[in-house]
Amino acid sequence: MNLNPMHLDILKELGNIGAGNAATSLSQLLNQRVDMSVPEVKLLKLRDVPYLLGGPEIPVVGITVLVEGDGEGQILLLFTKSSSEKLVKNIMVGLSQGEIDEEMKLSVLLEVGNIVSSTFLNALASFTSMKFIPTVPASASDMAGALLDTVLTVDTTENDTIITVFTDFIVQGEMIEGYLVFVPSPLALNKIFNSLGVSL
Known about the structure:
CATH class: Alpha Beta
Strand content: 25-35%
Number of helices: 5
CATH superfamily: CheC-like
Distance between the termini: 8 Å
Helix content: 40-55%
Radius of gyration: 16 Å
Structural class: alpha+beta
Number of strands: 8
Low-confidence stretches: none
Order of helices and strands: HEEEEHHEEHEEH
């Protein structure tokens, strides 16, 4: 994938808009302030993604959303196990740890994944005039390396380059690292840039 600085600037702008919209939507849902840091967009080899989270053996929680419509692909929202626990605790403020069961935790994380992925795709759609349709989010919990092997459905190899958006959720003043991994099909990425009048 031969992306130049202009391509990266476009992707970063999409990440900025998507993160801002996601923070607003989460704030409205939770009736409390939620901020997201300015995202950093990087291109990584798929095989290197587990190292973002501390290595292939680190326990992680992932929310995955398949993307249909004009550009097929997949979105993964990744948290380490400890970050996911902090996120749930801060979102469900007022409840003790003992009152929050696994079903409630999962429901919160799925809703966060739904909001973040939908707003990211909405930003992409507004930029490109393309139609992106997110599917119902699903969750997975495993070691980082195994999770990526299990949930990725886009036809990729370990050497493929994918788009990774680093951001932090800030809920109740506590910073929680999150990683939004956008894996468009090669055809979808071509369509995105062509729609902007930029060749890939």
